Each structure stands twice: as C-alpha cells, then as structure tokens.
Amino acid sequence: MLSRAEVSNRLSGFPRFEDMSLSLPYAPRMPRGMVRETREVVAIARTFNDEVARPRALELDRRTHEDPDYMPLDLVELANRWGFYTMWIPRIFGGRGYNMPSMSYFAEEVGSACLGIMNVIGVHYLGVAGVVASANTRLAKRILGEVVRGEKTGNPCLIALATTEPGAGTDVEEVELVDKGRVACHARRVRGGYVVNGTKVFISMGHVSTWTVLYAYEDLKRPSETTVGLMVKTGTKGFSFGSHENKMGQRVCPASVLVFDDCFIPDDQVLFSADMVRKFTKKPIREVAQRYIDYVVGATRPGVCAFGVGAARGAFEIALRHASTTTMNGTLLINHEWVQSMLAEMYKNVTLGRLAYTEANYANSHRGLYKILQLKPVYYYLRLMPQAYFDKVIAPMLEKDYSTRLMGKLSYDWARPEDQRCCSGWASLAKVAGTDLGVRNCQMAIELMGQTGLRQDAGVEKMLRDIKLLQIYEGTNQLNRLNMFKCLIAPEIPQARVFEEDR
Amino acid sequence: MLSSFKSEWKPFEDLARSFAAKELAGKAEEHDRYPFGEFFHDVLDKACEVGFLGIMLPGDLGGTGGSVGTLCTVLAALCRVDSSPGGIIFTNALAQELLLAADARDIAGEIFGKAPSAGEFLIAFPSYSNPAHQDNLPEYRRSGRGYSLTGPVDLLVLGGLARRAIIPARSGPKRQCSFFLIDLDHKGVSKSEPVFTLGMHACPAVDVRLDGVRARLIGEEGKGEEYFDRVLPAMHVVAAAMNAGIMRGSLDEALAYARERFQGGREIIRWSEVSMLLAGMAVKADVADMCVTQACQALEQGDAGWSSRCAAAALHIHEIACEAVTDGIQVLGGNGYMKDYGQEKRFRDARQVQALLGSVPARKLDLIRKVAGV
Ligand SMILES: Cc1cc2nc3c(=O)[nH]c(=O)nc-3n(C[C@H](O)[C@H](O)[C@H](O)COP(=O)(O)OP(=O)(O)OC[C@H]3O[C@@H](n4cnc5c(N)ncnc54)[C@H](O)[C@@H]3O)c2cc1C
What we know:
- The complex is a heterodimer of chains A (503) and B (374).
- Chain A is α+β, with helices and mostly antiparallel strands.
- Helices cover 55% and strands 12% of the residues of chain A.
- Chain A has 3 domains: 27-156, Butyryl-Coa Dehydrogenase, subunit A, domain 1 (Orthogonal Bundle), CATH 1.10.540; 160-279, Butyryl-CoA Dehydrogenase, subunit A, domain 2 (Beta Barrel), CATH 2.40.110.10; 287-492, Butyryl-CoA Dehydrogenase, subunit A, domain 3 (Up-down Bundle).
- Chain A has helices spanning 4-11, 17-20, 23-26, 33-66, 73-81, 101-113, 115-132, 137-153, 175-178, 274-278, 285-325, 337-367, 376-384, 387-398, 401-413, 417-449, 460-468, 477-489, and strands at residues 159-162, 186-190, 193-204, 211-217, 227-233, 239-244, 255-266, 270-272, 327-328, 331-332.
- In chain A, β2 (186-190) and β3 (193-204) form a beta hairpin.
- Chain B is built from 12 helices and 9 strands.
- In chain B, strands 1, 2, 3, 4, 5, 6 and 7 form a 7-stranded mixed β-sheet that branches. In chain B, strands 8-9 form a two-stranded antiparallel sheet.
- In chain B, 58% of the residues are buried.
- Classes of the chains: A alpha+beta (503), B alpha+beta (374).
- The interface between A and B is large, with 58 and 48 residues.
- Bound molecules: flavin-adenine dinucleotide.
- Flavin-adenine dinucleotide (FAD) sits between chains A (123, 161-164, 169-170, 173, 177, 202-204, 247, 255, 469, 472-476, 478-479, 499) and B (261, 263-264, 268, 271, 273-274, 330-331, 333-334, 337).
C-alpha cells in the first residue's frame, strides 16, 4: 500500500483531489442542523409556490406585456411579508440567518414556478453579498439593519448591485479586462466623500430598491486599482433612474438604467476603497478587487445555477403533466418509449444541475465567502444564541474598526488563493451547467409538447423566455467558461494566459 | 441569399427584400406587440397587393403561379427581417396547396379568383399540427346535402383575420380524416381572443369551438391524411426556408454588433471565442441555404424519393436554426435579451417556426417509418 506521503503526492496532481470532489470531504463536516433547516426552507418555498408564485406567474407575465411600465411593488411587499429579504441575512446583522446553501434549494423551488418572481426575491442577495463581502462590518450592520427594520415595519428595503455600464459588461467582471475596457462611471474624491458621474445599465430591481451597491472608479484609466464601492440610497440628490428595459422574459423583474449626475456620497457610505483596504492588507488593491468580485460572484453564481435548475425542473414538470394527460395515436404520450426517454433525460438534467450547485456551495461553505458561518461551533452559536445577544453584544462590535479589520484579514489576507480559485471556478462551472441544462430542458419540453408548448397559458414558453437571461447575466456563459479555465485549469499550465489573446 | 444558387429566383428575392426594407425593417418589434398592440393590417394588404399571398397558386386561380423555390426565396428574405408575415404567407400557401392536392380547383377559383382584399384572400388553417397525429379533431357529420362540424380546433392560425378556414375533421368507426371549408362567420363558430404564443405574434392564432358548423368537403371523404402527406414535402421546405431566413437575420445582426462593440479593448469579433460563435452561426446559415435550395430544385424537377429528404432537411434546419438564434443573442450579451434589438424575437420565432406542421418527435418518427418502410 502507499504511504501517506505518496497518497498526498498523488492527490496533488491535476486534477487535485481537493478540488474535484468537494462533497466527499465536506459533507461530513456539515452541521446536522443545516439539513433540518434546508428541509424547512424547501417546504416554505413550496407553500409560497402554491399560494403565490404558481397562481400568479402567467397572469403577471401577461400584465407586463399589456403594461410595460409594470413594477412589482405588490410582489416585493408579499415577499417582504413572507420574510424572504432577511431569511439569509446572518443573525449577527439581525437577519433570520438561514444557512446560505439552503437559498439554492429555495431558488430551485421558486424558480420552478417562476424565474421572474424568484429574481424579485433573489437579486437582493446579490446586493447583500456585495455588502458582506466588502468586509465593511459597520456599513453592513447599518444597511442590513435597515432591511431587517423594513421587514418589521412593512416597508421593504431592498439592495440592488450595479456594476454593468453601457460600454462595459464583461469587462467589469474581470480585473484583467477592466483596465483595457471603457468604463465611464467616475468617482471623484472630494472632502468628506465622493462625487459620482456616470450611468449603469441592466440593474435588476434598481427602480424598486432602497439601496444600491455602486461600483465606480477614481481613475477611469486605471479602474482595477481605483475601484470604489459606494452605498447609494434611492432619492439621493444626483441619482435618478432612466427607463427600465423591455426584456424578452423575467418581465416582472425590472432591469433599470441608473444615472449619476454629480451625486455626492458621504464617507460613511463608502463600502470599499483603496484607503480602506490598506487598513487590513498590504496586498495590491487590484488583487483585492478581483478577490472581492470573486467572493460576490462565487457566492451568487451557484444561485444562478439553482435558478436554472428550477427552470429545468419547471419545464420537466409541465412536460410530465402534459404527457400524462395527452394522447397521440390513441396512446397516452407517457406510454410512448420516446417520451419516457425524453422525460428521463430532463430529469437527469435537473439532477446534474442540482449536483453542480451543491458542489459549488460546498466550495463556498468550506473555502469561500461564508466558510466561517459553516464551522460547526459558529453555526450552532449563531443559531442558538438569542437575538437580543446579537443586538446588544455583537452589534456594537460591528461598528468598530477592529471588526472590519478582522473581517478584512480573514477574507482577504488569510484566504488562500487556491481556495479562491476553487470557489470561483466551481461557481462558474455550476452557473454554466445549470443554466445550459435549464435552457435545454425548456427546449425539450416545447418540442415534446408540440403546439401546446407554444402557448403562453401552458407555461413552458415563458420559462424558455425567462431562462435565456441566465446564460447572460452574472457574466455571459462564455465569460464563465473562460473563468473556469482561468481558475481550474490554467494554474496547472504555466504557459497559459487568459484574457490576453493575440489579436 | 437563395437566389445566389438559382438566378431565376432573383427577381422575387429582390422584390421581397425591398418589401422587407420598406414595410418591415425597424418595425418588427412594434408589429410583434400584437395582441397587446395594433395588428399590421396595412402591411398585410400590401403583401396581398404584390402577390405574396398566392405565390404558388396558379395564375388562372388568382395566384402568381410561382414554384416552391419562389415561395422559399420570398419567405427567407422576409423572415430575415420579420417572420410574422412569413407565417401568414406560409399558412395561406398551405391551405392553397391542400385545395390543389385535393383537386378542389373549383373552390380555389371561387375564393381566390375574385378575392379583392387580404381579408378575403386569407384562409385560416391549424398549421402547427399534422391531422394524422391529432386525436381530438372535430367530428363531421353529413347534414342535408353538405356536412357539419363539431368540436375544438386549437391554434387556428389566421382564425381571427380570415373569413374562411380549412379544418380537418374525423368521423366513423375508422376515424378517417377529411378536410372541410368553413365560413368563420357562421353562428356555430366561437373564437377565443388571439392566443398569446412564444413567437410570431403578428401571425396570430385563435382557439375555435365549432358547434354544428356548415362545412363543404374538400376533395374526397377520408382522404385528408393523404392530401396532407402530399403537400408536406414542399411545405416542410417552405418552413425550413423561413428558419433559414431567421438564421440569416440573426447572423446579420450578430456580425454587425460584434464589429462595433468593444470589450477588453477591442471589437469583440477579435476575441476568438466570439468569432467561434459567429463561425458556428455562419456555418449553419450557409448549410441551411444549401439544403433549402437543393430541396427546392429536386421538388421542382419532380425527383422521386425526395419527400423524406425534404422532411429531413427541414428537421435539421429547424434544429440548427434554434441553436444559431441562441448564439445570436449571446453575441449581443445583455442587449440580445432586449426588444430594442431583433435577436430575442428571432430566438422566439425560430422555435415557433420549428413547430409548424406538427411536433418534432412525431415528424421524426414519421420520417423513419417512411424511410424504413414500416
Ligand atoms: C436582465 C438583466 C439583468 C441584469 N442585472 C444586472 C445587475 O443587477 N447588476 C449588474 O451589474 N449587471 C446586471 N446585468 C448585466 C450583465 O451581467 C451583463 O449583461 C453581462 O455581464 C454581459 O455584459 P454585456 O451585456 O455588456 O455584454 P458584452 O460584455 O458586451 O458581451 C457581448 C459578447 O461578447 C463576449 N465577450 C465580451 N468580452 C469578451 C472577452 N474578453 N472574451 C470573449 N468574449 C467576450 C460576451 O461573452 C458576449 O457574448 C444584467 C443583465 C441583464 C440582461
């Protein structure tokens, strides 16, 4: 038999065993409470689907076609009442503190009924991730605190996240690209804060959010070294909304144009900047900025995978119902062999997609953004201590500089680059897999259902319109493939260069 | 593009292109708002005026007397810009071909010989289904000297616009299928609002319920499936030509965008990943054109054995079209998903066109049964 050293040696070759099979080492380390919690989350989602999402999905889609100015205020209010906007905010910030991976299961469930409605709930957590990953605990406490209060008072407080600009979409997803790109959202340092000028586009839920996590650049020629993250409140002078987009699908969820015209943001709303980063790390800001992006998308892209799996499942379920009730040549479709095979293929796609987000979540849980929350003692501590304890004892600590410094050190200084690559690579892998499989299932369902599949009232054509977006946002699947290459493959090949192709 | 394979088609292609440039370009999104916006009656009237509603119909019956190649050329050119008029022309041509296949020239002459307007010229038909695979067709009964129909017809294309419809129906223990002409103004016809579908919104369909509707038999009783089979090869190719046009349009827009759009400091066409997407689309668009042309030529020469090849070509073209239009969106990134550009509509339309003439799996099974002779 092999010695321990030999085993380690063998397993560190490409693909590294550590990176290729995450559930094997990590599943046993998972706190058992997470299972119970996740079961509860799924049950809540199913209840919501029966009471809200399914009955309303098609009617709302129709309404947005009749009235392109529709805004989902009623849905937001409902979701707020159901507690969805605080469900995955950690308890130290006053939220309900459900474990992060459970959100993927939730997204799959609600996504199987309506991706648009799921986005109305889910995009907020892109904003939450943007806030939390900054390590700025003081601001996180303030903003997330407002979200929690918004739930208690019935005035929803949502967070949007704005990176994309008219001239820079893919470019702002990658520090390698951003310096070559044409970013135009400028943050000028002034006494007591920043003055922002520029435009952001395609910002999901922009119009109906209270806060926006805005990324701008102090020097438009060196954006990767001068990125600033700012919290901008809707209603601030100099911040206005342009139109919202006329989209193919997910029409209940607006994608907004945000316009900044000499918009002043005070220092206490600066989430992330070179000055702040220097307080906790000596690493180059460019590297920290990339890691920041990776933390956010590393956590949210598996969620997008789950959205895709949701659509894959929704399409499967509709096709299954159709096949069970429709005959062809006198025989129920479900009893034709080709139909059984197609349905099995669709079921397979759903399951593979789910495995992909599960693995990516294991990466984040043990090597990524929320790994601290998933340590057993921390997990139980956060679950079991009374909320008053967090409000009285922990909350004041979050205000302190040392708290931000500690978070910064944990997240940026002490995190291993190979962990970051693993999380980001798996997130891209899951995102591409889940969304491609989702599109595939919607297409298969439409094919299987023939002319019925074309009808909006049959549900599946809307799913196809809805899911197509998932191959585009959070980085196109093309960009995500390149990121996978960069994170999971290129490190093994010294001569590999990414985003530097010869013309 | 098809005319580059056969110069006789050139005048028709030129006509269709100038029609598209004048009547459709820049308005596809507006036209597509139907049923939530206005229907483009003016465009339809003009299409009727230039003869697009009767391209394959013989001249003595009020048509243009063109070939299947002519129709394909025109539809590919129109669908490159907007596929909804293509869907209308397709459905009308299908109805006309059925009349001819059933040798019902008398009926055709009555309808088209003196049809002054598009409304009169249009015949509604459930063009997303093959009656052979439909278990729930309306029932027909003899009544007096004619027939009467009762039952549902789903997705009757042009049902809200046309005065007449051709309807497949079944009867008797053998459930044999026959085609009938009905008047949609008959009191026994109840129509739904336009059905909101995935694509081709301006080629609308309605659900219809027939209740003892007076009907005129087309051709002989019980020969419905045979007539349909007879028109299928050509109509498969015509539908494929529509998707060839849609693909071409998607490639046009993707190429133009990729040349202009900068990311990472260069036009995105200079990233080889984008070039690969474009190359895949170009391959598909060219292969589709070649398939359509070859099939048209074979059909025009009356080559034997081409009927299953036509079905095969169509299945293949639809499939690659649906792939190409997905990439067509992808090249435009977020903009591809927005109605300000044409790609999202093509993505929807290509699927809708694929569904013409019955479900894909059913068509595949038909094909292999014919090829294998089982
Ligand atoms: C409905 C919707 C909601 C959205 N919500 C948000 C949001 O809430 N917040 C936010 O910040 N953004 C949001 N986005 C923006 C989204 O993330 C971007 O659309 C996406 O990143 C792509 O950018 P782009 O649209 O500018 O496309 P581009 O970057 O212009 O890409 C066009 C094409 O070029 C390719 N390409 C570009 N660069 C390269 C390269 N270097 N190598 C190879 N190929 C390349 C792309 O893959 C794509 O195929 C949303 C978008 C949509 C459509």
